[in-house]
Amino acid sequence: MLYTLLCYNDEAVTTAWTAEEDAAVMARLDGVHRKWASRFKPMIRLMPTSAATTLRKKEKLVLDGPYAETKEQLLGFYVVDVPSLEDALTIARELAEANPGGAYEIRPIMLYIPDGSAVEHGPHT
Amino acid sequence: MAHIPDSSWLEAKLTGARPRAVAALLRYFRDLDLAEEAYQEACLRALKTWPKNGPPRDCASWLIMVGRNVALDHVRKRSKLTPLSLEDALPEPDDAEPEIAARLDAIDYRDDILRLLFICCHPELPATQQIALALRIVSGLTVKQIAHAFLVNERAMEQRITRAKARIAQANVPFESPTPDEHSERFDAVAAMIYLVFNEGYTDAHPKSERAGFCGEAIRLARLLLRMFPAEPEMMGLLALMLLQHSRRDARFDDSGAPILLDDQDRTRWDQRAIAEALAMLDKAMRHRRPGPYQIQAAIAAMHARAPRPEETDWAGIEQLYAALERHTPSPVITLNRAVAVSKLHGAQAALDLIEPLVEPLEGYFYFHGLRGALLERLARHAEAREAFGRAIALANTPAEAMHIRQHLDRLQSAEKSL
User: Fold this and answer.
1) pLDDT grade for B177, boundaries at 50, 70 and 90
2) Residue A53: beta bridge partners?
3) Residue A72 belongs to domain spanning
């Protein structure tokens, strides 16, 4: 069975980390990543929500910032490789046509590791 | 039960919650000292109880409630001791309670934080006091840390901050929600103050110096404001600009601490993560089609960040962006920067023609004479170049700047010898 583990934390706290604290957290995580390397599929760290843009499907409205409503639930996600935010929005709009209701939050990715084998034998982060 | 690995984690929680908590306490007490005191008290309680019970779900709200109650207690005790003197200053505590609750319920954190930052950039305060105040009150640095960074003793810094606070107390900052006009005025002032904090850390500060941390603080404040006001393209531009400048921190100085020029930096040492975030911010900002000085400056910095090697720099694009910046905020310093792009595109003579009219406004400006000397040198007008370099050395702000010009002079001398 494939599962996703969605990571939640208080951004006011994580963006207050110093570079050293950030690196220490990443090093601790790296230990776990290595231990379960054969089990890990893509590993992704997102950019802060200040970098997010949201497409509200119903109004076809593009808004700055993350999707903050609590009425809807997270049902899935895509990872797309495109040259700009505008291209990501084009795809999101087509998806919205195919599946109306709710919203897409478009958030750039800060760190992308395709799967566990990339960390298993690689250098320590 | 939450497991807390070490106290630095707790500290990060407190640091993260600080701006929101102090801002809300300030709205309640309408007095900077009282708000800070209340926050400190709340932190002391947090340090006692959080390691035992685990941190609350919403740290800032916890600190606001506890800080408010503790400070109210103090006020009550004080008012019992000196009942007469406080009559005018404070309402009866019992009467005040419902009002407090209402104020806390109707909380608009956004205005609170903006107000807290706005207070620090009062126009009567000189830049250094604005920076010191913001670092003390919003970021929560200790007076000792700030004094150290500014190379003054602790008592002098304490006095400076006290004076700044006194000035603010007299200034009567309005606590009503700002009108749209006031909002944009506050926003501009706050953006300028954040960039001041950044530059205090960036300008000639070695990455290992005390002041280098200011850059990270400024970036954190910009992110915080963007979380509250997500649709401000100039704040996106400012964040992008700071991220791009900060991305070069490990490449800007050699081992001896001397600065390395952009063209000579090892670009593999630029922080790609910061660059990626900056480019994403800029992409977002451009969608608004409301360009401003921070967005344009960020776009210029992005041109450099996108070039894998200096030779691949899009100087035509940079020249256009500087021209746009000149139209937006005309300034001889911007023209001087455009001249650098012009020299790369059309040669030294074209650039020299562009900067000759700037002699008067930039007479006392190190970079003007430095660039003029370099252009004259390239045109083989050696005597004039030497004179310009001489002026530059006299105006150098740091030994490193002077050393850089001296290298030019040495090169000039050996070029003449070989003729």
Assistant:
1) confident
2) A64, A106
3) 11-120
